[in-house]
Amino acid sequence: QARLEESGGGLVQAGGSLRLSCRDPRIILSTFWARAWGWYRQAPGKERELVATLTSGGNPNYADSVKGRFTISRDNARKTVYLQMNSLKPEDTAVYYCAADQDGASALPTDYWGQGTQVTVAS
Known about the structure:
Helix content is 5%, strand content 46%. The strands form 2 sheets. Strands 2, 4, 5, 6, 9, 10 and 11 form a 7-stranded mixed sheet that branches. The longest helix has 6 residues, at 29-34. It has one helix spanning 29-34, and strands at residues 5-7, 10-13, 18-23, 36-42, 49-54, 60-62, 70-75, 80-85, 94-101, 112-113, 117-122. The protein contains 1 helix and 11 strands; from the N terminus they run βββαββββββββ. By secondary structure, it is mostly beta strands.
């Protein structure tokens, strides 16, 4: 059962933008701070790939395919993690998954997952 709640997916034209949101309604702020967070995606017929991560120390990392276009961030007051996606391309079409890890330094967050949200980019 997915623990994280995602929102913000949808259909957008190439070149457009979307912002995905992810939150865990059951955690307190200190737990939110301590986690590493990440976004993955899985396109039809392909394996799930890591898109972006954010450590508890606030250090982001991105897949080469999204560098300069996507930004991962967090809002502490809302205990929410975002993935801002700009200049979207048809190849960004996928189901996007939020993940979190109790290890705040994790480069591959996998402890908790969301149910996934569909992003479709039309050419």
